[in-house]
Hints:
The complex is a heterodimer of chains A (800) and B (329).
Chain A lengths: L14 H6 L14 E7 L5 E7 L1 H5 L3 E6 L24 E7 L2 H9 L2 E6 L6 H5 L12 E3 L5 E3 L5 H5 L13 E5 L2 H6 L3 E9 L2 E2 L8 E6 L2 E5 L8 H9 L6 E4 L18 H10 L3 E3 L3 H7 L2 E2 L2 E9 L5 E11 L8 H13 L3 E9 L14 H19 L3 H8 L14 E3 L2 H7 L1 H7 L6 E2 L2 E13 L6 E6 L5 E4 L9 H12 L7 E4 L18 H28 L6 E4 L2 E4 L2 E7 H11 L14 H10 L4 E6 L7 E15 L5 E11 L6 H20 L17 H4 L12 E4 L17 H17 L7 E2 L3 H8 L15
Parallel strand pairs in A: 1-14, 9-32, 12-13, 17-18, 19-29, 23-24, 30-31
Antiparallel strand pairs in A: 1-4, 2-5, 3-4, 6-7, 8-18, 9-16, 10-15, 11-12, 11-14, 16-17, 20-21, 21-29, 22-23, 22-28, 25-26, 26-27, 29-30
Chain B lengths: L9 E3 L4 H11 L3 E4 L3 H9 L6 E4 L9 E4 L2 E5 L4 H6 L1 H6 L1 H7 L5 H6 L2 H6 L5 H5 L38 H8 L3 E6 L2 E6 H4 L18 E7 L7 E7 L10 E10 L2 E10 L6 E2 L1 H7 L6 H11 L12 H15 L1
Parallel strand pairs in B: 1-3, 2-3
Antiparallel strand pairs in B: 4-5, 5-8, 6-7, 6-8, 9-10, 10-11, 11-12
Helix pairs in contact in B: 5-9, 11-12, 12-13
Amino acid sequence: MAYELIGKDFIPPDIHGKVTGKAKFAEDFRLEGMVFCRLLTSSVPHAKISNIDYSEALAMEGVLGVLTADEVPEQSNVVEPILTNEPLYVGDPILAVAATSEAIAQNAIDSIQINYDILPFTVDPLESLYPGGPDARSDGNTMSFSRPRSIISHKWTARDFISVDENTLPMGEATETWSFGDIQSSFDSSDLILDETFVTAGNSHLCMEPRTTMANWENNKCFIYGSTQSQSAVMPGLASFLGIDIENLVYIGEFCGGGFGSKSNPYSTMAIPAFMSKKIQRPVMMRISRAEEFYIGRARPGFQGRVKLGFRSDGRMVAADLFVVQENGPYRGFDDFDAAASAISLLYQPEALRMQAVPVETNTPPRAAMRGPGENQIAAAVEPLIDKAAKQLNIDRVEIRRINAADNDAKYYSDQGPVTSAYQAECLDKGLSMWNEIKLRSGQKNGSKVRGVGVGQGFHPAGRNGYDGLIRITPDGKLHIHSGVGNLGTYSHTSTSRVAAEVLKYNWDNCVVVRGDSRKHLAWSPTQSGSNTSFTTTRQSYVAAVDALEKIKEIATLDMGGSIEDYDISGEEVFLISDPTKRIKFSTIAQRAIEIGGKYSGYDMPDDLHPITKSSVSGLAGTGLIGVSKDNLYRNGLVAGIAVGFIEIELDTETGKFEILDYLGVSDCGTVLHPKGLSTQISGGAVQGFGLAAFEKHIFDPQNGLPGNLGFLDHKPPTYLDVPSVMNTAAAEVEDPQNPVGAKGMGEPVQGCAAAALVCAISDALGGHYFNRVPITPDMIVNAVSGREQSHGPLDVNTA
Amino acid sequence: MSKDMMQSFELFQPDNLDDAINLLDRFRGDSWVLAGGHDTFSWFKDRAKYAPNVIDLNNIDELKGITETNRGLEIGALTSLTEIVSNPIIKSNFSLLSDAAGKVASPQIRNTGTIGGNLNQDARCWYYRYGVDCYRAGGNSCYADTPQGQNREHCLWGADRCVAVSPSDTASAMVALDALMVIRGPDGEKEVPAEDFFIGPDIDIERMTIIQSGEILARVILPTDWSGATFYFEKVSDRNTWDFSLVNVAAAMIIENNVIKDIRIVAGAVQCTPRRLSVVEQVVKGSPKNDDTASLAGQAAIRGATPLNYNHFKIPLLENLVKRAIRDA
């Protein structure tokens, strides 16, 4: 379909502030009388605190107060507490000190005496599953993800462990499981079965902007200035942390310097400056440092896994059996294991699949969704095995993926439900000409260097529905899109808002994206996460615009007669189709809406709106023509976000280093909303994927639970010099039928496909040596090439 | 543990070296010498090390610049790494040093980081940097040299309670170039060969160089002996910028008619000091520069290496880099 705005580049309204430094992130705000607070965090991985003596701190000049765990609401035992008396990892916040400066607060913290009663701890899930092994928590060692989540005690038997060799994942009783198909008969009908143990490392989100929060109370209202990916979706949870009603919360989150899933939802530490502010009656800023961000900033869970795959001789994957021991961190964690299996179900369409998992608690930083949670780890683990199968079955590596690819008849997950659309083969086809060229260079040697090529695939669900759209046309003729979605940095707040302008045939210069502050009357929107914004929020904008369009035409009929079918719009005017000279400007319509009142200007509204939207509509009532609706559009099935990456590398067998020579990322994102945004997402996702594949991992000392690599220097996200300066991007460019403009999300799988492609290319360069572990670092490559054993055991985690 | 919050300190900014030495003499153990600040402020921010009086050398012009003298090329300790990378004399006559300096950290760090700071930087063992009470920090244990210690970056030789390695890329080049380190103290100047400048834990576990409290590295002299020699520098690190060496190798060779007449070859990040590979030098001196000599050199380089639990990859890596130094220089 031809669009005026969709599919065209635009200048995001917030980019000027970012480029000039005028953008106000959470820590840039200042209020009169504002003071700072800093955290005292645990120096040990697990302990109960028997005594805290902060008398010296309180006596220091400039110290305004101490806030302890006893003064903040207790959370349920699975939720990360706001402050704790039983720290569960090095870095767990114990108390906060407020002072007139951060240096004074830190001096005060240094004077505080904490008595820790040390408790057992673990940084290795398998160690905890061993009979008698240490538990990360006093109340158990495993998170049960059945609702409501709970901590349970779960151990395997010694027999479970010794029944396999040390290089193979033992498979004791799983606590999480689902399946479809007849797994045994599908394996029986397989011509090739691969059964492999693998490890994927946990790693930090490494958001550029640490999760700073400032809080202030005025007349019982709490004002929070925070760093979150989401806007409206943050409100209920944040109000709950604070113990207040949503109407007493003002949330300002205009900019977010990176979240990658770790800031989708409100987080407990946001409440610390709020409670401190309430206590000392001053605005309180809690800046989070780089090191603190490593601790409280969340992480991707690592997997100790085993996967058995059954293939027919024609390359068709018929059976998949996945077992994941997930390093779940000390608190709630995220169900990456479940998503990992779901990705296998979608990308390879097996006849039968079984997922088994045990999410084990560890005394390491809290886990949360990170870009492609589960799907991207499993892409890095399973895609090399697809290559292995292709080699053994003598099938081209792209072809075997095509044979198993999801299409519009694809089935998904345990219930084998439908998809809205899936164009995996089309993505593979977009890279075919590159593949046919680079595969000729596979294994080509130049001195100590050897070429490796790879193809990788990634998946993530890419859309939701049921949220609200809210727009407003004011008497000056401007269209205001009151977007409740956040600003995680992709500019999707604007690319999705442009759908409303498209429907109403607006000149984009006359449109205003209203966002970033709950006082601006924003719509109820999903978390800006899970690759869902493009699909979900375009629907929100669409239904609001359709509602506005109908109201515009209704007002036209009131003033010029006829029925709404007699009217159309153009040039921000409504006109009589039979006599286009009879026109009313939208500015006039807006004024008329105010005069008429009722639903036209927000005094009446649909009952099915979310309370946040209802409150926003009430706030806007009488200021213009209001278009508001819940997204009740049809949706049946999974919105499949698929991506494919193609890569060529040159690996130096003497140093273990490689250079990425070429990369192409292809996304099945339906209609492209914003070409620049798409290419940035594919390239940026690829960089993060290369990090997952070859650079980034947690290191913890099993002797004392200390983190070995906090910060950007030691955690090693790829730099400009580790990735190609130019990467190629493309889209399948086939519309999704269940989105009004054909769009689907794409943010997460573009990381997984790049990670997988790179892992595959490294193995290709090494003539088919499979590490069954990510990241693959130079030491591992040097060891492999020189025929040495790896320093770590195949199931070791969190090692250097 | 990392606190990311500096304590207050008194800042002194002398404009000549004598005043700086006097200030150090006045404050003794309570003083700290500040050059580029990269090492200093990471310690200070973490509150793992602290001194109430900081002597900032950045206003002392006599510590800056690169000059040719009758003794060779003299490089002030406050000269930035970027200046060394781009200096035409160094590039043409001592490219080993400009190559090594160009591999230090990142462009931003090289712009403000100094050669003196790079040579005098403290050990990078993550446990030590974390602020634990290890031997090097005045305690009585080593966290890295244990069966479970995470010691991938640590040493192959010279373990003596501490297993940290020489973190400086330019240090390897300085030893290979047989540089002289000029140290100023209360009693005037003294010159020390680079090879003796760096010290291991067996000599003093709390220092990385022979510089003592009250002394400052004033300049480095590159003697003309190796000017224009055949050089080879290679650093392998996890990422292509910012990271410290997993292993580096610096070599200076005199080659005539494809025969290696003379050589100094040094490895970094394999022991606490730049490791002069004397056995390699003896093996290859007088040999033709070819693949066989290169292989022999590689094998000679790793003799006696004693890996820890997570760093045996450094053995083949060092072997390969030494082989490349002979083969590819």
